[in-house]
Structures are given as structure tokens and as C-alpha cells.
Design goal:
heterodimer; A: mainly alpha; Non-ribosomal Peptide Synthetase Peptidyl Carrier Protein, Chain A; 4 helices; B: alpha/beta; Peroxisomal Thiolase, Chain A, domain 1; 2 domains; 10-stranded mixed sheet; two-stranded antiparallel sheet; 32% helix; globular
Chain lengths: 85, 354
């Protein structure tokens, strides 16, 4: 699980061009959207594509995203439970 | 009809031109077949949260736009008109590569959003909070001149009072390889100071953003008056001299009235003879300058020539590194620019001291 969390942080920093942020700056329970990391709706789309491409998870209900993408902890838990690759 | 003035200028180029207090003081003699821009500190101009999704062309343009507005002492402009030959090329390449690599699956929004030609104009408007007329011209090496013509007509007709006009293009890795394949790029690297002596075909490519505030009101910061712009998609060599004389005549000028001829020579022996026709022909007694060894070649490189001419008219000095011949004008009152790329999309631009 820790390896997955590290992987997710690296992906988020690289794919979402968070230039001034390092892996150590993101705590596992930090909010990714809003007042936390400050991600927005376009980032949410990037994350949905990432779930599909990297882990074979298709989000059919966009409303699910709000809970899944709350933090690195929630993302890692969802991916571990639902990944197909 | 109202007169049109260049009230401010700003340039992000392969030299340190973003500082308007300088005028090509420290020349970087790049060596290569493509030359990168000297990057300003983008964080001084763009909030990090906004910058993270911006392509290089957008960042360069926003910096140039903000410098131009600052120099014109404006908080806002009435309109934004952009010229770009290739738009946000890197994001276009990224999106299309992903499309192919992932078999049309897993397409992400960011590069798609930014892959259009008018992204720059839109992002500049967002940064400046300009809700006015916003238009982008895409017309190869006449893109910037097309933007100029639009701005000039609107200002002359007093439809707008201040317009931000710019030319921007960025180097895209894949497109550059294609341009190499078709022989548009020089095969061997050259020192840019020796560009015109290379005697080889192809150009040294570059990128950059040059923005200007044009207005129908002259102010203390004004650089020059924009007198006329004329474009030709095709123009045979044998018709060039007469066409440029007719252009001057239409503006009640003769060759002798031109104090400086700014040419877009890029060291390509296949096409620089267009410039030779003027430089060695009718304008052989006129002081001449060139600039593509500084800017590199790109579709809107002529906007750098426009920056150079504006600066010369205001400062009344011509840096040695852009001089093309030994003739010296006593002063610079009227400047004529001529540009073409690979024998197509010719433009004449006429500036006057104000």
C-alpha cells in the first residue's frame, strides 16, 4: 500500500505539473482538492483517466470521484479494492 | 482616420530582450540549428497555480503582454489580437501522440484544451481580465502582419482605443523533426553571428513572443507610428522591386526617404535572394539591418523585426550586431520592414518616428 501511495504522489506531481511540490510535501491524508493541494475539475478528469489507464478502473458514476479523490489514502484504498491490472 | 501609434513593446526571445531598459547589450552567440529563448522568471508574472497548465508559448506571451501593458501604463486594453503560425504546438503534439500511442483511449483534457491556435489569446485575456474583442490570425509567416492590419484598421476607425497585438510561436520537438526531414532546417549547426555566411540551405529555427500596445492616442512612451502594412501570399522575384516602390508611392514616399530597411534574411541561400534583390538593388544606398540571427526563424519572427524597428525609432540607435551594411543614416525617421518565408507570404511594414 505504501508503494502505491508513493506512486500516486509521483503521478500527481508529474502529470498535473505541480512544479513546486515534492512527494514529501503531500501527506497521505491531505485533501487533494479545495484548500488542500488545490486541484480542480480538470485535474479530476486527469485522475479519472489515470485510474482507467494505470489500474483498469472505469468510474461510471462521476459522483464517486468526490469520495475516491479525497486524499491519497482514499485513492489508494479504492485502487487496492478495485484494480483489474 | 486616426493615426496609429506603438505605445509599448515587449519581447521574449533568444536574447535577453524582456528587459526594456536594455537594447541587445549582451549578445548570446548561440550555436545550433534551433535556438531557445532566454526565459524570464515566469513566476514573477504568473501565479504558480495558473502557470502549471500553461504551454511555453502561453507563458512567453503572458510575460510579454504584462510588460507591454506596464510600459504603456495601462491596467487593461480594449482588445487582444494575436498572430501565430503554429499555435500551442507542443500541446498539439502531446495530444496527437497520446491519441496514437494509446489507440485513441485514455485521452486527457489538459493538452487538448491547450492545443488550439487561439489558446494564447484566450489565456492572455484571462490573465488581463480583458473581455473585449479577441481574435487570432493563423497565416503562416503573415500571421503577425494579419493581426497588425486588423488592429490598425480598428484603431484608425476609432472602434477601439488600445489594442494589445502580438506574435508568438514555440518550437515543437516532433514538428521540428519533420521540418528537418523536408530540408527546411540547416543540416549543420552554425554560430548565429555567422548565419549569413553559412552559404547553406535551410534556416536556424527559433521561438518567441513579441507583444505591443497599439493606440490611436500618442503618449510619452510611444515608440513609433504605424503607417502601413501590406501582405502578399505570392510575389514573383521579378515583381518585388516594383511592388515595394508602389507600396512606398502609395504612402507618398520614395526609396530615398527610407532611413533603414529591416530585412528578414535567415541565411537560407535558396530564398535570401529575395532580400538581395532589395538590398543590392534599389536600396543599395540605404542603411540595412537584419534580425533572424537573433530571433531564429519562426512564423511570427517578423514580430521581432517589428520590435527591433520600434526600438530603433525611439532610441535613434542601431546596435552593431544587426547592421547588414556599412551605410549610416544620419537619423532614423522612416523604417521599412520586408519579410518573407521560403518565397511565400511577403510583407511590407512601414514605421515612422513620432
Amino acid at each position: 500500500m505504501d508503494a502505491l501511495k508513493q506512486e500516486l504522489k509521483e503521478f500527481i506531481i508529474e502529470q498535473l505539473n505541480l512544479e513546486d511540490i515534492e512527494v514529501k510535501d503531500i501527506a497521505n491524508d491531505d485533501a487533494l482538492f479545495g484548500d488542500g493541494l488545490g486541484l480542480d475539475s480538470i485535474d479530476a478528469l486527469e485522475l479519472i483517466v489515470m485510474l482507467d489507464k494505470n489500474y483498469g478502473i472505469k468510474l461510471t458514476d462521476p459522483k464517486q470521484g468526490r469520495a475516491i479523490f479525497e486524499s491519497i489514502d482514499t485513492m489508494a484504498a479504492y485502487i487496492t479494492a478495485n484494480r483489474t491490472n | 482616420m486616426k493615426k496609429v501609434y506603438i505605445n509599448s513593446i515587449a519581447s521574449v526571445s533568444a536574447q535577453k530582450t524582456f528587459d526594456n531598459a536594455e537594447f541587445l547589450n549582451d549578445f548570446i552567440d548561440h550555436e545550433g540549428i534551433e535556438i531557445p529563448v532566454v526565459n524570464p522568471n515566469y513566476k514573477d508574472f504568473i501565479p504558480p497555480a495558473a502557470a502549471r497548465r500553461m504551454a511555453k508559448g502561453i507563458k512567453m506571451s503572458i510575460v510579454a503582454s504584462k510588460i507591454a501593458l506596464q510600459e504603456a501604463e495601462l491596467e487593461a486594453v480594449d482588445a487582444i489580437i494575436t498572430g501565430t503560425g503554429m499555435g500551442c504546438l507542443r500541446d498539439s503534439e502531446k495530444f496527437l501522440s497520446t491519441l496514437i500511442d494509446n489507440d485513441e483511449q485514455y485521452l486527457t483534457p489538459t493538452s487538448f484544451i491547450q492545443s488550439t491556435h487561439n489558446t494564447v489569446g484566450g489565456q492572455v485575456a484571462l490573465e488581463l481580465q480583458c473581455k473585449g474583442y479577441n481574435f487570432t490570425y493563423v497565416h503562416s509567416s503573415n500571421s503577425f502582419e494579419s493581426a497588425l492590419v486588423d488592429a490598425k484598421m480598428q484603431l484608425a476607425a476609432n472602434e477601439e482605443n488600445t489594442i494589445l497585438v502580438g506574435g508568438v510561436d514555440e518550437i515543437g520537438e516532433h514538428t521540428f523533426k519533420l521540418q528537418e526531414l523536408v530540408g527546411h532546417v540547416k543540416v549543420k549547426p552554425v554560430k548565429v553571428s555567422e548565419l549569413l555566411n553559412s552559404k547553406t540551405s535551410g534556416a536556424v529555427y527559433g521561438e518567441g513572443a513579441n507583444f505591443f500596445v497599439l493606440s490611436n492616442e500618442k503618449q510619452e512612451s510611444s515608440y513609433a507610428q504605424l503607417m502601413a502594412v501590406k501582405m502578399y501570399n505570392t510575389l514573383p522575384k521579378e515583381a518585388l522591386s516594383e511592388t515595394i516602390k508602389a507600396f512606398l508611392s502609395a504612402n507618398e514616399l520614395q526609396v530615398e526617404d527610407i532611413d533603414l530597411l529591416v530585412l528578414g534574411c535567415n541565411g537560407d541561400i535558396e530564398f535570401d535572394d529575395y532580400y538581395d534583390i532589395l538590398g543590392e538593388g534599389g536600396f543599395n544606398e540605404t542603411q540595412q539591418a537584419y534580425y533572424k540571427h537573433i530571433s531564429g526563424e519562426f512564423n511570427t519572427a517578423s514580430s521581432f523585426g517589428f520590435w527591433l524597428a520600434s526600438k530603433v525609432l525611439k532610441l535613434q540607435t542601431l546596435p552593431d550586431l544587426v547592421k547588414l551594411n556599412d551605410i549610416k543614416s544620419s537619423d532614423f525617421k522612416t523604417v521599412l520592414l520586408y519579410n518573407q518565408y521560403r518565397g511565400e507570404n511577403h510583407s511590407f511594414t512601414l514605421l515612422k518616428q513620432c
